[in-house]
Design brief:
By secondary structure, this protein is α/β, with parallel strands linked by helices. The protein has helices at 11-29, 41-54, 73-86, 95-101, 117-128, 143-146, 193-203, 266-275, 280-284, 292-300, and strands at residues 33-36, 63-67, 90-94, 132-134, 151-154, 182-185, 214-221, 224-227, 241-246, 259-260. It has a six-stranded mixed beta sheet with strand order 3-2-1-4-6-5, with helices on both faces. Strands 8-7-9-10 form a four-stranded antiparallel beta sheet, with no helix packed on it. Pfam families: PAPS_reduct (PF01507).
């Protein structure tokens, strides 16, 4: 009797297939794409998806990181090591350089540089002529991201208009752009934080160590655990505590906070994520404690 093939596919298989299709669509339709890679968990998932889409050949695009200069050392070290391991080109453009050119002006050195990344990104897009930037944003992160298409059009000024987006019928994507325009492409837009961690566990993906439980000095501020660093020193009246924490998302030190957690591996994090009722940004980003309108304004100006 012939063997019966097991055709059952998990939800991760479907999400993976969709993301690989989107990446291949970018490679086929866009002249000069780039994959944004910060060393964070979502961009690590994108790298694995790119491997599955294009290996054993080279990626049909370089990697790029917009470096705020306020990143955790563990993440930058991981970023460089992972790019070298893959043998892929990594372009790094720095907010510090934009500050030196005068295109970014901050009130003080310790200000969050999250929003300022948009300027440096637009400068890099113009420098290299990129017409598609592949990123790891997900719709569950916050409400403004949920309004975006998978292929999100940006005009010649790098601006996004949420009221004039292109229709995406089934899996038909319009990638046409004129000179100076570009697309922001989100292959894991339909994934959730839980999906990402389940995929990390399934694929046994390496991540920066700060995603897992470790000891860190923090202070409690506005309902968040703020890491004690030269950029985020204790304020008057705040007491330093040494707690077991992990980061749900990583970014600019001046606005990224850990959460109290004993989870030291992906399975433990999956168990925590499955029962949480607070989004990762709501629980960890000081500069995201703002209105949906404020975040939407940032995105209209070029924020990824």
């Amino acid at each position: 009797m012939p063997a019966i093939l097991n055709t059952t596919r998990s939800h991760l298989d479907w999400l993976e297939s969709e993301a690989i299709f989107i990446m291949r669509e970018v490679a086929a339709e866009c002249a000069r794409p780039v994959l944004l890679f910060s060393g964070g968990k979502d961009s690590c998932v994108l790298l694995r998806l790119a491997e599955k889409a294009f290996r054993p050949g080279k990626f049909p695009f370089p990697l790029m990181h917009i470096d705020t200069g306020h990143n955790f050392d563990e993440v930058i070290a991981f970023r460089d090591a992972r790019a070298a391991e893959l043998g892929e080109q990594l372009i790094v453009r720095s907010v510090e350089d934009s500050i030196a050119r005068g295109s970014v002006v901050l009130r003080k050195e310790t200000d969050s540089r999250n929003a300022a990344q948009a300027v440096t990104l637009l400068e890099a897009i113009e420098e290299f002529g990129f017409d598609a930037c592949i990123g790891g944003a997900r719709r569950d992160e916050e409400k403004a991201r949920a309004k975006e298409r998978i292929f999100s059009f940006r005009d010649e000024f790098g601006q996004w208009n949420p009221k004039a987006q292109r229709p995406e019928v089934w899996n038909l994507y319009n990638t046409r752009v004129h000179a100076g325009e570009n697309m922001r492409v989100f292959p894991i837009s339909n994934w959730t934080e839980l999906d990402v961690w389940q995929y990390i566990a399934r694929e046994n993906l390496a991540l920066p160590s700060i995603y897992y439980a470790h000891q860190r000095d923090v202070v409690r501020r506005k309902g968040l655990l703020v890491p004690v660093t030269p950029l985020t020193p204790p304020q008057d009246g705040e007491s330093i505590e040494n707690l077991t924490v992990r980061f749900r998302t990583v970014g600019d030190i001046s606005c990224t906070c850990p959460v109290a957690s004993e989870a030291a591996d992906p399975l433990a994090i999956i168990a925590e994520t499955a029962v949480t009722d607070i989004t990762e940004r709501g629980a960890t980003r000081m500069d995201d404690q703002t209105s949906e309108a404020s975040m939407e304004r940032r995105k209209k100006e070029g924020y990824f």
